[in-house]
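Notes, p. 3: input format for complexes.
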Amino acid sequence: MKNKKKEISVLIIYTGGTIGMVHNPETGSLVPIDFRYISDHVPELKKFGYDLHSVSFDPVKDSSNIDPAVWIKMADIIDENYDNFDGFVVLHGTDTMAYSASALSFMLENLNKPVILTGSQLPIGLLRTDGKENLITAIEIAAANENGVPSVPEVCIYFDNKLTRGNRTTKLSAEHFDAFSSPNYSYLAEVGLHIKYNRNQITPAQRNRKLTVHKVFNTNVAILKLFPGITRNLVHAIVNTNGLKGLIIETFGSGNAPTYDWFLEELLGFISKGGIVLNVTQCHGGSVEMGLYETSRQMLSAGVVSGRDLTSEASVTKLMHLLGRYTLREEVIKGLNRSLAGEISFS
Ligand code: ASP
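Output follows (347 residues plus aspartic acid):
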């Protein structure tokens, strides 16, 4: 048994984020430093019976500087090391963690191993840091298996005692340790004395799946959050942005927008030029239901696609991924209307 446990291997990919930050003595601002700083502050890492390895980005990043090129780098590291490790922990800043988790979930098709993103609200060097527990438990989850079958073969976020599906997660608080929420999908695991896996919510492992990594994103997308008083000028400027391929409109409630003629005309103009409009709600939880009210029925007739219960982070990364993967507009729309990695509910 002991030997068996020793064989479990986890790769820690350190991209940056508050967890490894210190104050720059000149400016007083927090900046990320190398992984050794983290491991020096978590001597518990040596107590794991697992074979732990780490790879660090150079330079490490505040996650506000993370973009599709960095997602590709993360996916490449996972791909190159896929056969040699049982699980992966990605240390990442919290600000864009839900975007990276969503992007990775779409890039890593047929993933059959845990990829657990975590970080912290307070740097690891501070006494009250949340980083230690987050890191230690994330490793535990990345290593967890039942008879050799990984317990959570998904891209997830582990933070403050909760494991959530990455593409269902959104950052909720810039203050609380409980920084993330998964408004439309139950936790994959809850952590107290025990790690309790919510097995019905976890995508089962399938040994015969071969990992396929999709590395192309098309960033010609925009998110337009509606608000009462929005002007035609603004909408017109956005839909006429040079090269724009996909527009996410963050609508009210269950997917509603003003029924002004001009609003629909602008959307129709964009759609008739081959653009794709995806409707997601600006509410924190719940789903778009196009046609429920007159204020969304017209958009449905105009060819606006329902984003159902997608998070904002999942909608923008999914659209960039699909626009990068397919050239045919119909294929992109087909992709939007299905679940690629458990990011959307159909009920
Ligand atoms: N600005 C930091 C980052 O996203 C915040 C954090 O890690 O919590 O990298």
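The radius of gyration is 21 Å.
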